[in-house]
Amino acid sequence: AYTQPLPDFNFDNIMIEATRAQQPAPVQALVTSESGFRHIDVRSLSDEQQYRRKVQSILNKLAEANADVLISELLVPELLTNNNIAIVVELVFDKALDEPFFLTTYIKLINALAKYESTNEKAPGTPTSPLAPAAIAENKGSVRRSLISKSQAVFESQYEKTNEGLSEEDIDIKRRQEVANVTFVAELLNHGLLSLRVFPSVHSALFATPPVDLNVELGIKLIAGCGKFLDESVSSADTKTKRYVKPDWFDYVANIAKPMDKPPAGISFRVWFAAKNLTELRANKWVVKAPPKVEVAPPPPPQPAASTASASTPTANKDPEFARRLRESQPPDWLTEDMCKSIIKKATKDLGKEVETDAPSAGYWETMVNEFGLISPSILPPVCRRAAAFPLIKHFCSCPKDDVRQGLIPMFQKWTEKEFTFALAWVIADAIKCCDLEDAPKFFDRFALLVAEAVPASVPVFEVVFARAGSFLDTMYASEDGEPRWHSEYLKVWDLYLHAIQNKSIQLAPVSKILDAFTKVFNPFLQIVIVDVVDKLCADGFAKRDVVADWIKVASKATEKNDKGRQLADEIRILFC
User: Fold this and answer.
1) Is 65 helix (H, G, I), strand (E, B) or coil?
2) Which own/partner contact pairs does 344-350 have at CB distance under 8 Å and 24+ positions apart?
3) pLDDT surpassing 60 at residue 560
4) N- to C-terminal Cα distance for the chain?
5) Which helix (H) or strand (E) holds 402?
6) What is the pLDDT of residues 463-492, one digit of tens each?
């Protein structure tokens, strides 16, 4: 009887079958379009095509710095047949139109080619000119003939081509090529590389009647490029040269520039002004006027820094009370930059030691804070400690290292409430005023986190930090002609603080106490931001609108006793209208 074969469980056979099953499908060859890139075998090219590639390669590398070296590579007698000279002239002409920036270098190449041809014609068979007489006869005048043929072909193709169906970009490209063409032709005329016989036909085409704006512009460009040469040809004794140049060419341009109020019909203002510039240039014997020298007055000598900020403001000089408030709104002037660096270095250095031992000794931070009270022997210790907290808080908000920031928080908690909150108001007012936080993009975020972590919950932060900082900012911008500023930064810090205490589940004081605190220092700066401050409290769930409305009613009744409360209530009422 027939028995079915047992399955093959050999692992090698299983892997072979699996590999066969997973073999990818054959990849189809890419379809190349007619204009796609194809590798060209140089050996399959003709001699002319290979020569074109070689010349084009040299021109692509040609610059003013390496012109002599690369030009010598082209001046090979065996290669400079009549056809090859025409190829060089054609490629150089095209490059000059595409890259007018290197016009001087291309003129130098054409000039070297013409001189080489002339040298070989005069001294055949010499070591420097090894061309045979037959080759010289074939080459004679090839450079100039090729230049005339190429320039005439380019000019006629551009002149006969209309702008119909062209986009604005294509029209601009066509105009640039035409300008580059006449500029190159003018330089060839200046160097004697092109005969004046081509000039009458070009002039009659460009300066036709009625005038065409673009053609007149090209004619002006051509005369401006070789005007001195044309003037010298007019006054030349050579009758053969004079017959190709007519003085009335300059009169044609002068007639276009003659009107004083507006250009003639069919001429744009740009071409009109170009004609005026050309007439003035000819009157100045073709010498371009040097631009007038602009005498820049030397900067005033630096003024010595005032001893205090209040001394530089006229308001502070007239109002002693304002001068006192201005001094309080910023750290003392005796707190120098070197002193700040010393304070930061001491705190972070000792902090590093404590982190290594991982066991701060009792009273360690109290001792350090007390030492900061002695940084200036002539100043009271509380004032010194308050000043020392300023650079340390700024360092906390700027430092990217988490361990350093976390290590500084226990030290901040050893300052007295008044000293530390006063320094906090200094720091945030200074940061908002400077607004130079590119090096510390998280400055405001870290400040809000520090206030939430280091300040006890029993301290009225809204009064001793934010309301005080608002008072400092109002005093400082009042000293700067009262220009409104810094409000968006203040609101940003306020919003970040609300989010910080919300994340840490810290209970905020009742909104009535917050508004009472702002009432004590209500000023023009807070008048602008108070509506947004209350709006953020309500939006984030820290206050209810009906509670704020009740406070407005109470504050409005106390108009006789508290005028600032009435003003604050009037501003907040706008939010509930």
Assistant:
1) coil
2) 344/391, 344/392, 344/395, 347/392, 347/395, 347/408, 347/411, 348/395, 348/404
3) no
4) 102
5) helix 402-412
6) 778 888 878 877 776 655 555 567 777 778
DSSP string, 500-519: HHHHTTPPPPPHHHHHHHHH
Of 98, 86, 97, which is closest to residue 55 (Cα–Cα)? 86
**Helix, strand or coil for residue 577?**
coil
Helix (H, G, I), strand (E, B) or coil at 281: helix
pLDDT of residue 452: 83
With vertex at residue 261, the alpha carbon angle to CA 256 and CA 263, rounded to the nearest 5 degrees, is 35
Spatial CA neighbour of 552 closest among 522, 529, 575: 575
Which residues fall within 8 angstroms of residue 192, CB to CB, at 6 or more apart? none
Q: By the 8 A CB rule, do 267 and 216 touch?
A: yes
Condensed to tens digits (0 to 9), the pLDDT of residues 333-347 reads: 888 888 888 888 888
Separation of CA 299 from chain center: 26
Per the DSSP assignment, residues forming a β-bridge with 126 are 129
Helix (H, G, I), strand (E, B) or coil at 92: helix
CB hemisphere CA count around 426 (13 angstroms)? 23
Query: If you search the block for the tokens 């290590």, which residue do you land on?
Result: 407
Q: What is the CA radius of gyration of the chain?
A: 43
pLDDT digits (tens, 9 = 90+) for 183-236: 888 888 888 777 777 667 776 777 777 777 888 888 888 888 887 877 777 666
The shares of helix, strand and coil residues in the chain, as percent rounded to the nearest 5, are 65, 0, 35
- Report H helices in 300-380: 314-318, 320-328, 337-357, 364-372
The Cβ-side half-sphere exposure at 300, using a 13 Å CA radius, reads 3
| Helical packing angle, 524-539 and 545-557, nearest 10° | 150
Amino acid in the structure at residue 131: L
d(CA 259, CA 254) in angstroms, rounded, equals 9
pLDDT digits (tens, 9 = 90+) for 504-550: 777 777 777 877 777 777 777 777 777 788 887 788 787 788 887 87
**Cross-strand partners of 129:** 126
Return the pLDDT at 128. Answer: 39
Query: Which pLDDT tens digit goes with each residue over 361-395?
Result: 547 777 877 888 888 878 888 888 888 888 888 88
- The CA distance from 380 to 387, in Å, is 11
DSSP state of 126: B
Cα–Cα distance measured from residue 492 to residue 422, given in angstroms and rounded to the nearest whole number:
20
Q: Could you tell me the pLDDT band of residue 313, with boundaries at 50, 70 and 90?
A: very low
